[in-house]
Amino acid sequence: MVKNLVDVSDLMEVAITKSRLLKEGILKSEWDNIVGELSKKSFVIFLKQGKLFVGVENSIWIQQMNFQKQSIIKKINEFLGGDYVSEIVFKIGRKDTKDYFLEKKEIDEPIDLDNVTLTGEEYLQMEEELRGIENDLIKKQTKIILEKSYKRKKYLKLHGYKQCKCGIYYSSTEPMCVICMNKEVLKLEETLMRAFKNKKMLKYPQAIKEIETLTEKEYNRIKLKKLSRIKKDIDIYLRNRKDNIAFELSKLYFTIDLGGLEDEYIERRAEEFIQLLKK
Question: Is residue 99 part of a domain?
Fold first, then answer.
């Protein structure tokens, strides 16, 4: 006579509670079921201490997902069956076909986990994560998932993949993954945009003294982007007959474009520019 039948859902609930990697793996594989159409523009990176990091294609989609953040968190916790995620951090980035967080089928070469051997120390780390799971069946199933995860990471390391500071494995020669690189580019743009607005770093030799890693190509690209934004604002103010504001923006335009110069010369160029635009 069977005394008790263990419900599979109960087993999974306990396993999910004990294992961060299991929760993370579930979210990665079921992301489309959790966020629906938004999964086409986003993907799970990793989960750490209740904070879920999600890659998003661009800032427009980040804004869209921010509007729904609390709803997404609620759906995630309902899906996992507990309050496991309290915050979501969105990062701009696209799926790289060689990154660790992708499905096995998307990686160029198939991963043969059977030929990956873990060390005694690695198995001890796994046991540490499994500590506290009393049910033997739950522990066995969770250990299978953990072992595959450990072997996968080890395989990627052995085949030249590097682990970024954010936790992602990637294969390029860059010092960080594409998501973190995009984030660094955005920070660089924000720094220079503020500097240009305050009439600072108007020439590349000035900028390179404060931002040692800045290339001249990056500098010129961001400078051109700033000038383009100012030009659009000038056009808007002229259409609304706010010539004084348009004139001040034109002075800023030529101050940035020419790298400073005397105020009298800048003002003359700005006046000529305004007259040309008004024709």
Answer: no
